[in-house]
Design brief:
The protein is α/β, with parallel strands linked by helices and 453 residues long. Helix content is 41%, strand content 14%.
């Protein structure tokens, strides 16, 4: 009874919020703050990308005399809080950078403008990026912007001291029974306070100086930079369908066996404990930079951060091969969306069309900060990284050469916020408190009840 009552309350709360938001936005008359008929307001969260998009705005304005683009950048957490508040207050931007994790909720609340009339062709972008931004009604609500994948960053000095070569790190494999060569490598990179390695006799797992693998937290509902490369390479899928699934599969025996093994690395002393992770204050890259951890799984958006860390000689390796015989990495693609009540809707659509064009994407790629969505934009980014002396093949090969790799996307479903709110504490309980993974079946049942199963 407790499960049903909690779930019903969740659904009613979400429905009430959606109804209130629909009423407010329905009454807002193009309420974009600081906008006029000659200005397009554009929000993004990544400060590193701001100069690239300022350059795109200059090019756009030259092609559209009299139209100005006003760009506002804010931090990740503030961005989503203020964006949600702006929809309620009727002060939303004309255009904003959208995340696939948030897309389902925005589409459900009907705060996005269909972009079918922009004439975007999915084949013009890296495979899968365009299709992700179609709603259940078949309309497009986002123009492909960029993409990222996940790979293994490692401290080259620590790897050399451990006797591990780049070729060995490039060819790691794993399984949920004994961890394979991946676990052996992580164990060997782990060092306790007496200088004993994790795979040596006398290793003290309770007094570790350097962990083989940094912690990225519990991974919550998607595990993008934590457990997802393992669950996916074991053949598991988040939902019953690639997009707009109606049933999550966290109750799967495959999923739970992988999660049990992955967080079991912390019990062995190889994976940094849950308490070592603080989003913003002590993320995975900070643990590697401080020497607290030898390796970390992280996304392509962090390449410049790792390679730009003074005193850190870093290398990258692809995710390990799993029981399916393939590697797996989440391929996340951002998009630009136009708000339903955009004051300058015509200008907004022109701006989004320009953002998705090869012209703008090559400009962005040239900054070597992110991989743009078009192949030409991606090539420009690879060339820019090469000029900096950075090899990004661990991130690009799963996309450009899929012979031994598989990419997968964030789960796109209704009630994404509810899924997150249920899975977050459940996964933290497994990691931090050693709760049995079987308890995830109950959480999965709650989630599917919300989705109408």
């Amino acid at each position: 009874m407790r499960v049903r009552m909690r779930t019903v309350a969740t659904r009613l709360g979400a429905l009430g919020a959606a109804l209130a938001l629909s009423l407010v936005t329905g009454c807002a008359k193009g309420g974009t703050a600081g906008s006029d008929g000659n200005t397009v307001t554009y929000w993004l969260w990544d400060a590193n990308q701001l100069p690239a998009y300022q350059a795109c705005a200059k090019g756009f304005e030259q092609q559209n005399p009299g139209v100005k683009v006003k760009i506002t950048q804010m931090g990740w957490s503030d961005y989503w809080t203020k964006l949600t508040a702006s929809f309620i207050a009727g002060t939303e931007p004309d255009v904003f950078t959208d995340h696939i994790q948030k897309f389902g909720q925005f589409a459900d609340l009907k705060v996005l403008e269909p972009l079918d009339d922009l004439g975007l062709d999915d084949s013009a972008y890296q495979a899968g990026l365009g299709a992700n931004w179609r709603g259940q009604d078949g309309h497009r609500y986002g123009a492909p912007k960029d993409w990222d994948t996940v790979a293994l960053f490692y401290n080259q000095k620590m790897a050399e001291e451990a006797g591990l070569t780049a070729d060995e790190l490039d060819s790691l494999s794993w399984n949920p029974e004994d961890g394979g060569t991946f676990e052996k490598a992580i164990a060997h990179l782990t060092v306790d306070r007496n200088g004993t390695r994790g795979d040596e006799k006398g290793f003290d797992r309770n007094n570790v100086e350097v962990y083989g693998l940094a912690t990225g937290g519990a991974g919550d509902a998607d595990g993008q930079t934590t457990w997802s490369p393992f669950t996916a390479s074991a053949g598991w899928h988040y939902t019953d369908k690639a997009r707009w699934g109606t049933e999550y599969q966290y109750g799967s025996g495959t999923f739970q066996s992988v999660i049990d093994w992955y967080f079991g690395l912390a019990e062995k002393g190889y994976l940094a404990p849950f308490t070592d992770y603080t989003d913003g204050a002590n993320p995975a890259n900070a643990q590697v930079a401080s020497g607290r951890a030898a390796t970390s799984f992280d996304g392509a958006w962090m390449i410049s951060t790792y390679y730009g860390t003074k005193g850190l000689d870093v290398g990258t390796a692809p995710t390990p091969v799993g029981p399916t015989g393939k590697r797996a990495t989440m391929m996340n693609g951002l998009a630009d969306s136009v708000t339903k009540n955009a004051r300058n809707k015509e200008g907004a659509k022109k701006w989004v069309r320009y953002l998705a064009s090869d012209e703008c994407q090559r400009i962005v790629g040239g900054y070597g900060i992110v991989f743009p969505a078009t192949p030409d934009g991606t090539r420009a980014a690879v060339a820019a990284y090469e000029k900096k002396g950075i090899d990004v093949s661990a991130f690009t090969e799963p996309v450009t050469d899929k012979t031994d790799s598989a990419t997968f996307s964030f789960p796109v479903t209704d009630y994404a916020a509810d899924v997150y709110s249920l899975m977050r504490p459940a996964m933290q309980d497994v990691y931090a408190n050693d709760a049995p993974v079987s308890g995830l079946t109950r959480t999965n049942d709650q989630i599917n009840l919300i989705l109408g199963q």
